[in-house]
From TrEMBL:
Neprosin PEP catalytic domain sequence ranges: 117-375
Keyword set includes Membrane: no
Statement: the UniProt record of this protein carries the keyword Signal: yes
Alphabetical UniProt keywords: Signal
Protein name: Neprosin PEP catalytic domain-containing protein
Secretion signal span: 1-23
């Protein structure tokens, strides 16, 4: 009798070892990236998005109804800017590439979604539309990518865009975000990575980086969300640019995101956020912003030395400072137009600035970044003026929450 039980237990144990725990999908192919990442090609219908309760019976949308103003697509143009592309192997049709969440520095499993989006210490230098509330159906922007120095492992530095509705007062900030980010605490290294984020309750209970919890549905087999970007921009040399576009698909209801290297041209639809993730079921966003953000943890009892953008101030201009250029906004469905009324500002102008510029080759654009200088003597900082004190007040409110 006892031995039968033992045998059954053994069978159970074996069964557990052989079947993937907790429904973790078995990759159809794994690709070794030169930076140590392992990229698993997962069957599209087995991606983590479908663990979201609202997505249980979701039928995947293969492609957006339209890709507004996308260039002609040659498949090879989609590859080449993410480090894992250097392997040369691609994920097969019907699968998506996913970064395996194991640190290549010390083999530990990366904790799922421990990013910090809400505690204090966030500092911004951004641009936004002058008009406070609008019906916004999408935005597109091109940003040059850098590898800013991040002082401590739990600080981050990023360049991104935001599409936002709702307010902090009502705890219903709905936000969709995408760009590049250095964040050792969650990625376990100091490389800039292509990232996305969403929340529907002001970063409280919902919110998710990349594919680390259910929500964003990926369709592309060419792009790894949270894949490292290389090369990056060189001071006085080549500027490596990423174009990110997010738009509301009026027919399918979803917010689609596409990305491409360089100025516009070829954009690969990476995937979408289904409309029902968001609790403000409007078919538009009310605000849009672009720019840089860092976290300042005051680790050594002083302001962090973490760089935003390239680490250079906006006055350094092209070839040195980080920029967001060719900014476009859709104020009606799929009607992307160069942004007319850009306004810029920062939460900590002693350290990080944003400044408009008018180089016609860059469309609507601004430079951003910092810090002004390292220690001591930020007293000599150039104070960037705000286009209006109202904006400053808004920032203070934002930072207080
Ligand atoms: C590409 O990935 C495969 C599978 O992990 C690996 O065997 C191969 O060595 C890699 N090739 C290169 C050039 O890194
Ligand atoms: C691996 O690295 C992480 C982040 O640096 C650290 O928190 C963790 O303790 C390390 N684990 C080991 C076994 O060294
Ligand atoms: C976050 O959600 C919890 C649970 O619903 C709620 O009690 C709390 O007030 C929320 N916090 C904020 C800042 O909205
Ligand atoms: C831009 O802003 C100005 C106020 O500075 C306003 O008068 C104008 O109507 C705005 N233009 C557009 C296209 O929103």
């Amino acid at each position: 009798m006892g031995s039968t039980v033992q045998f059954l237990l053994l069978l159970l144990t074996l069964g557990r070892l052989l079947t993937p725990l907790g429904g973790v999908p078995v990759p159809v192919l794994s690709i070794q990236s030169p930076d140590g990442d392992m990229i698993d090609c997962i069957k599209r219908e087995e991606q983590v998005a479908f663990t979201h309760p609202l997505l249980k019976d979701h039928i995947i949308q293969e492609r957006p109804t339209v890709i507004p103003s996308a260039g002609k697509k040659e498949e090879d143009a989609l590859y080449g800017w993410q480090v894992w592309h250097q392997n040369g192997t691609k994920c097969p049709e019907g699968s998506i590439p996913v970064r395996r969440l194991i640190s290549h520095e010390n083999e530990t499993v990366i904790s799922s979604n421990a990013g910090d989006r809400v505690t204090g210490g966030h500092e911004y230098a951004i641009g936004r539309m002058y008009n406070r509330e609008q019906k916004i159906y999408g935005t597109q922007a091109t940003m040059n990518v850098w590898q800013p120095k991040v002082e401590t492992y739990d600080e981050f530095s990023l360049g991104q865009l935001w599409l936002v509705s709702g307010t902090y007062e009502d705890s219903n900030i709905n936000s969709i975000e995408a760009g590049w980010q250095v964040y050792p605490k969650i990625y376990y290294d100091y490389q800039p990575r292509f990232f996305i984020y969403w929340t529907s309750d002001a970063y409280n209970l919902t919110g998710c980086y990349n594919l680390r919890c259910g929500g964003f549905v990926q369709t592309s087999r060419a792009i790894v969300v949270e894949g490292a970007i290389s090369p990056t921009s060189v001071v006085g040399g080549t500027q490596v640019e990423l174009t990110v576009k997010i738009w509301k698909d009026q027919r399918l209801g979803s917010w689609w995101m596409g990305v491409g290297l360089g100025h516009v041209g070829v954009l690969e639809p990476v995937g979408y956020w289904p409309a029902f993730l968001f609790n403000l079921q409007t078919d538009y966003a009310a605000r849009v912003e672009w720019g840089g953000e860092i976290t300042n943890k005051h680790t050594y009892g002083r302001h962090t030395t973490t760089q935003m953008g390239s680490g250079y101030l906006p006055d350094s201009g092209f070839g040195k400072a980080a920029y967001i250029c060719n900014i476009e906004v859709a104020l009606s469905e799929n009607d992307f137009q160069p942004l007319q009324n850009l306004t810029v500002g920062g939460s900590h102008p002693d350290y990080y600035g944003a400044k408009k510029s008018n180089n016609p080759e860059l469309g609507t654009h601004f430079y951003y970044g910092g810090p002004e200088q390292l220690y001591p003597g930020h007293a000599t900082a150039i104070h960037l003026t705000w286009d209006s004190s109202l904006l400053y007040l808004c920032f203070c409110l934002l930072l207080l929450v």
